[in-house]
Fold:
Amino acid sequence: MQMIEIISLKKKIGSREILKGLNLSVKKGEIVTIVGPSGSGKSTLLRCINRLTEFDSGDILINGVSVREYNPLELRRIVGIVFQLPVMFDGSVEDNIAYGLRLSNVGKEVEKEKMIEMEKEIKKIAREVGIEDFLSNEATKLSIGEQQRVALARALILKPKVMLLDEPTSALDPKNEENIENLILKLVKSKGITVLWVTHDVAQARRVGDRVSVMKEGRIILTDIPEKIAWEEVYV
Ligand SMILES: Nc1ncnc2c1ncn2[C@@H]1O[C@H](COP(=O)(O)OP(=O)(O)OP(=O)(O)O)[C@@H](O)[C@H]1O
Ligand SMILES: [Mg+2]
Structure:
């Protein structure tokens, strides 16, 4: 079963073709890392998948359904995204984790039981990512590493099927990088989440990827298990 299927994806920005007929399939529960030179279109690809940006032709299927057929809110629940620099809203850590949950309840009257259930979920996920002691802190005042944990919790609380990670550890110091990398691995594997993980760090791509895709000038030119890739020929 393919969880993500990208078929002949093309996208222009202005008159420049950024994605040039890109193909990639990712199986359920698999982690595929994407490496490739700066400007090759890695972030643009991720943004097309959860429709932060539109594509021109081709298609992207999530769980067999085109992203164009999903309701956008539903798509962003199923497909979580974490960026290099965490985006924190004004408010507490708890508010930041609950953001997506509350968004999906806007305009609805939420019963008391559901509120209690949401509180429990927030505490559980905060514990899983290691920020249970910061729930009432101002989110924007946390360190980048702590904020990245909040960003992860915000995505994970929606129980996504897919996570898109755009260099999630590259703004961190080496110790935090290792911690967050291991945390992401543990969480996505235990929850069976399918992952596309963009990284500049070839060593990381080999460590965490079940398979690695090499991207060049708007195309995936190679996808294979790390052991089979001729790394000396991969220029990133
Ligand atoms: N909004 C935009 N307007 C104009 N050009 C853009 C825009 N977004 C992306 N591009 C261009 O598209 C190309 C691909 O950008 P993208 O951010 O996807 O690359 P990337 O592979 O993620 O690079 P990096 O490794 O530096 O993050 C780049 O040449 C970039 O300048
Ligand atoms: Mg990028």
In short: The beta strands are 2-13, 16-27, 31-35, 57-62, 65-66, 79-82, 162-166, 194-198, 211-216, 219-224. The first strand starts at residue 2 and ends at 13. Helices lie at 42-49, 72-78, 93-103, 112-129, 144-156, 174-191, 202-208. The pocket of magnesium ion (ligand 2) is lined by residues 42-43, 166 (CB under 6 Å).
